[in-house]
Write a sequence for this structure.
């Protein structure tokens, strides 16, 4: 056998060669950044041998490297001229300080991507990793759609009549806080398998009346609660059921029908964060105001008492250009005002939709015409109503992003150019989480300067 041409060990040689190459690249930083092939911070961190903090760096790298070269960049802040998120940040600060029982709850209303817990699952993981885990939060009794799925909870069910608010199947307009009503007779059941055994209680949201029935809660084979839904007058209620230590499987079963349930919430003691993912297939802002009983929904919101409500709609509306130009703005305004009426003093974030792609006559994937206009309407409306706004569309790269996401490998969006694949959802979650944390850090700086706190005191 011939002798190796390497006088140094191979690993040492390639290490030195890579270092020299990086040093050479550093002289062309501006050109590289202009084409978004590499970020200066990333290059310098390698040259300085400085490890990036936190376990989320690989996801951040993925997000940065997949930004389109002509826009976005993921650096957009949340627009909040009136500091309307201060009450949310104040709750988050109490949670970060580990004050006893300090739970920061976020309710994220959205459309079809949220039904699969896309974006929201990653946000839940990111925030709970930093601030503590106070439980999974709200979950439906069964799958209204085959793709309904929540990370950390599996559900199997049988015997329910399922009525989402988008289908307007309930005459009274009652769909609970999560937007779906479940009616079942004797023997109807739902079984939940939890990823972790840390939950200490399950809160059951249900309706009742003189027609009510009875259902039981089981942990394994043991009955842990029996709930009668007979009421003198039609109403909605919720009951907290203590879970035995180590519980991983919980079942609800109708013993005497009819029974009407809305949702369950799996919770743990604070301090920590709960991130509710409330996605409805085909939903829009109009769904919140036209298809459900306003008094019922507002009472459900008050019962949960979140620290922050996120309204994340617009994808479905963007397919109807005439509607966007006419009554869309007032529908969104009414949705904002309804949340404000139910939860005065609670922070509200209007979150724009992602890009939505479509093919033109030449086969190129562009953005549906109405979407940029819709995003600008949301932005202006947030200013008028004094709530916060996050421009997801711009943060992820602006017009044409879904086309780029579809053509790169691996793909980040499905073939409809609407629904992100898990990696795409993770990118959006990272962008929003970083924007929220920038706002949170700015809030803490204002506290130190004595410029914040008035909203908290007035809450």
């Amino acid at each position: 056998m011939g002798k190796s041409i390497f006088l140094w060990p191979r690993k040492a040689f390639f290490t030195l060669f890579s270092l020299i190459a990086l040093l050479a690249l550093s002289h062309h930083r501006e050109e590289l950044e202009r084409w978004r092939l590499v970020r200066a911070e990333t290059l310098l961190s390698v040259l300085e041998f400085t490890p990036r903090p936190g376990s989320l760096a690989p996801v951040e790298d993925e997000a940065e490297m997949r930004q389109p070269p002509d826009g976005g960049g993921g650096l957009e802040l949340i627009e909040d001229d009136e500091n309307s998120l201060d009450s949310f940040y104040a709750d988050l600060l109490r949670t970060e300080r580990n004050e006893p029982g300090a739970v920061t709850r976020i309710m994220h209303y959205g459309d079809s991507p949220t039904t699969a817990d896309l974006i929201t699952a990653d946000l839940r993981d990111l925030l709970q990793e930093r601030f503590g885990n106070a439980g999974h939060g709200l979950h439906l009794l069964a799958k209204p759609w085959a793709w309904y799925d929540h990370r950390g909870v599996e559900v199997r069910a049988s015997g329910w009549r399922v009525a989402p608010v988008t289908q307007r199947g309930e005459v009274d307009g009652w769909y609970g806080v999560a937007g779906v009503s479940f009616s079942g007779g004797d023997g109807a059941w739902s079984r939940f398998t939890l990823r972790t055994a840390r939950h200490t209680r399950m809160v059951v949201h249900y309706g009742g009346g003189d027609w009510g029935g009875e259902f039981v809660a089981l942990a394994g084979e043991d009955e842990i609660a029996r709930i009668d839904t007979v009421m003198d007058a039609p109403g909605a209620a919720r009951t907290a059921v203590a879970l035995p230590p180590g519980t991983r499987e919980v079942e609800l079963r109708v013993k005497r029908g009819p029974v009407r349930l809305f949702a369950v919430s799996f919770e743990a003691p604070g301090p920590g964060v709960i991130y509710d993912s409330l996605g409805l297939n085909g939903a829009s802002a109009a769904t919140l105001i036209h298809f459900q009983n306003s008094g019922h929904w507002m009472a459900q919101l008050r019962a949960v008492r979140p620290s922050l409500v996120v309204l994340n709609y617009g994808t479905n509306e963007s397919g109807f250009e005439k509607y966007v130009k006419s009554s869309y703005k007032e529908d969104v305004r009414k949705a904002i005002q309804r949340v404000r009426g139910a939860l005065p003093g609670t922070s509200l974030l209007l979150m724009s939709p992602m890009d939505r792609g479509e093919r033109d006559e030449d086969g190129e994937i562009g953005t549906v015409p109405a979407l940029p206009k819709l995003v600008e309407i949301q932005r202006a409306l947030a200013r008028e109503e004094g709530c916060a706004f996050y421009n997801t569309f711009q943060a992820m790269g602006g017009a044409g992003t879904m086309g780029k996401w579809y053509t790169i490998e691996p793909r980040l969006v499905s073939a409809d150019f609407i629904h992100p694949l898990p990696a795409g959802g993770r990118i959006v979650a990272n962008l929003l989480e970083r924007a929220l944390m920038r706002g949170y850090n700015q809030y803490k700086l204002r506290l130190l300067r004595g410029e914040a706190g008035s909203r908290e005191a007035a809450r």
Notes: Confidence is low (pLDDT under 50) at residues 1-8, 10-74, 454-459. The CA atoms of residues 360 and 366 lie 7 Å apart. The radius of gyration is 25 Å.
